[in-house]
Write a structure and sequence with these properties.
The chain is built from six helices and five strands, in the order αβαβαβαβαβα. The protein has a single domain, classed as Rossmann fold, CATH 3.40.50. Helix 2 links the parallel strand 1 and strand 2. The chain has a five-stranded parallel beta sheet, sandwiched between helices. By secondary structure, the protein is α/β, with parallel strands linked by helices. The longest helix is centred in the C-terminal third of the chain and has 29 residues. Helix 3 runs parallel beside helix 4.
């Protein structure tokens, strides 16, 4: 998504890609390809540790996060990112109903909790809207910081 005039004026960098985190590489890569067809930049990570590193390094606007990662549960990745002061739009996903129900009891404010498989025709416009909202909030925050100085 191209940067707005306001984003350029405030010196904000181009938007980082949506981060897709799923240990099922085929699923993650398919989602990324589908989002790219809708002109939404996407990157993939396949475990919790590298996902947390990527979240901390790039502060992505949206994170599609599988609950059942092999090393660190997705809910713990989300909690750690929030504890470090990052605030991406967190969308949790799983193919297992019982994991989805358990994730709702964590106290973390996930934007959505979705059941896989995720149809790209639904997901892409939804994620695009999330990216737009996060970018607009970041523009407002940068403008507020700049006017306070």
């Amino acid at each position: 998504m191209p940067r707005s005039t306001e984003e350029r004026r405030l010196g904000l960098r181009p938007a980082d890609p949506v981060l897709i985190v799923d240990d099922d590489r085929g699923c993650a890569d398919l989602l990324a390809r589908g989002l790219r067809r809708w002109q939404i930049a996407a990157a993939c990570r396949y475990d919790g540790a590298t996902a947390l590193e990527a979240i901390c390094a790039t502060d992505p606007p949206v994170v599609l996060l599988d609950i059942g990662l092999p090393d660190i549960p997705g809910t713990e990745v989300a909690a750690e990112a929030l504890a470090r002061g990052l605030n991406p739009c967190l969308i949790l996903m799983s193919g297992y109903d019982e994991r989805i129900l358990g994730a709702c009891d964590t106290g973390i404010a996930f934007f959505r909790v979705l059941h896989k498989p995720l149809p790209i025709r639904f997901l892409a416009p939804f994620v695009g809207e999330c990216v737009s909202r996060v970018r607009a909030a970041r523009v407002r925050a940068a403008a507020a910081r700049r006017s306070a100085v």
